[in-house]
């Protein structure tokens, strides 16, 4: 037999037969592979989500370390954002004015981003053309890998949807406290005395000694994804943060520009008795919202620890965790 005529033969019961699989055998094998893949995919997806959760926790821990280093160096935590509210050019509805730089920008030198920070002209507004290229930078620590709105810039617009600036994205917001001081009519000038009970707000200068409720009992930063786009850069006077998908989130309207970098928990003066824990179904653009299945989100406490807060947390407990000096007594087990 020549090589060109060679065929693979196998022997069974003394007879020569061609080796191969029947159609039924092939279908059985394919079915088994399909079942195995079906069993494996959920495990792979769960492993990926676990890795994304871990990365988000690590991001918050890095932000927490930067906050504590900032306070150690400058004797107060950074302002939620900086605004020269006495300027004649301030926004009439909110009193917001230049320069607008937010807590995320102020933390850059304390989170191994000094080179980025040094390229910014902090004497100019955060939206000034001279800073335009730099403020669109993507800072990995501010990006939650589980967020659907992961790519692209945060486009800052006014109430007429006119673009005012393009900033680098962030999936983390600072905790302003229970109330929403950006919503007062007429606007409030000094948020520390009337509206803000949290550690980060406009022109805040909160010290560790000011957090009398205890650092381990006070939320400083939390996740915000999916509902709306946020930024690490700053606040543009006259801007509005709007929901990305009003059909999916019909309970939230656009909020003033402070909510590009800050959030609140409730209850607010305009919403007495209403509290919004993380990922609450009726959550607004000005509350925390996480990308994870299971209802809840990760928050950074003032002592640098990170905790997962379930949507089902006791509402009074969540409100108490969002203030820093109101003297509420609660248990972390609630």
Q: Short summary of the structure?
A:
It is built from five helices and 15 strands.
Estimate the mean pLDDT confidence. Answer: 91
Rg over CA atoms, rounded to whole Å, is 26 Å
* Major β-sheet annotation: 5 strands, mixed
Q: Return residue spans where pLDDT drops below 50 for at least 5 consecutive residues.
A: 1-14
In spatial order, strands of the major sheet run 13-8-9-14-15
The rough form would be described as globular
SS strand fraction = 15-25%
Distance between the termini: 83 Å
**SS class:** alpha+beta
Element order: H for helix, E for strand: EEHEEHHEEEEHEEEEEEEH
The percent range for helix content is 10-25%
Number of helices: 5
**SS elements, strand count:** 15
Number of domains: 2
Kindly describe this structure.
The protein is built from five helices and 15 strands. It has 334 residues and is an alpha+beta fold. The protein has two domains: 3-42, no CATH class; 58-321, no CATH class. The longest helix is centred in the first third of the chain and has 52 residues, at 23-74. The radius of gyration is 26 Å and the shape is globular. The model is unreliable at 1-14 (pLDDT under 50).
Write the topology of this structure:
Blueprint: E1 9-12, E2 15-18, H1 23-74, E3 81-83, E4 99-102, H2 103-106, H3 114-118, E5 154-158, E6 163-167, E7 169-170, E8 172-175, H4 191-194, E9 219-223, E10 230-231, E11 239-241, E12 255-256, E13 262-263, E14 296-301, E15 306-310, H5 315-321
Parallel strand pairs: 8-13
Antiparallel strand pairs: 1-2, 3-4, 5-6, 5-11, 7-10, 8-9, 9-14, 11-12, 14-15
């Amino acid at each position: 037999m020549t090589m060109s005529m060679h065929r693979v033969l196998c022997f069974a019961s003394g007879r020569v037969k061609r080796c191969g699989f029947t159609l039924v055998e092939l279908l059985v094998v394919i079915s088994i592979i399909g079942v195995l893949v079906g069993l494996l995919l959920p495990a792979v997806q769960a492993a990926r989500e676990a890795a994304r959760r871990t990365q988000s926790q690590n991001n918050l821990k890095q932000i927490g370390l930067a906050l504590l280093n900032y306070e150690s160096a400058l004797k107060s935590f950074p302002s939620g954002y900086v605004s020269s509210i006495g300027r004649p050019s301030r926004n009439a509805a909110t009193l917001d004015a230049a320069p607008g730089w937010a807590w995320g920008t102020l933390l850059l030198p304390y989170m191994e981003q000094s080179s980025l920070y040094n390229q910014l002209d902090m004497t100019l507004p955060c939206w000034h053309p001279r800073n335009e290229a730099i403020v669109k930078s993507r800072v990995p620590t501010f990006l939650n890998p589980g967020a659907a709105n992961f790519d692209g810039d945060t486009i800052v617009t006014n109430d007429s949807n006119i673009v005012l600036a393009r900033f680098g994205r962030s999936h983390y917001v600072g905790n302003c406290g229970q109330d929403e001081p950006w919503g007062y009519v007429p606007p409030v000038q000094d948020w520390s005395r009337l509206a803000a009970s949290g550690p980060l707000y406009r022109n805040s200068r909160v010290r560790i000694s000011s957090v009398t409720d205890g650092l381990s009992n006070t939320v400083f930063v939390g996740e915000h994804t999916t509902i709306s786009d946020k930024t690490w850069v700053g606040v543009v006077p006259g801007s509005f943060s709007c929901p990305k998908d009003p059909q999916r989130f019909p309970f939230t309207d656009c909020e003033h520009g402070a909510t590009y970098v800050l959030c609140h928990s409730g209850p607010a003066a305009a919403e007495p008795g209403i509290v919004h824990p993380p990922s609450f179904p009726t959550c607004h653009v000005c509350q925390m919202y996480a990308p994870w299945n299971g209802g809840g989100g990760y928050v950074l406490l003032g002592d640098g620890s990170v905790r997962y807060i379930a949507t089902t947390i006791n509402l009074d407990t969540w409100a108490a965790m969002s203030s820093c000096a109101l003297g509420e007594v609660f248990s972390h087990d609630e």
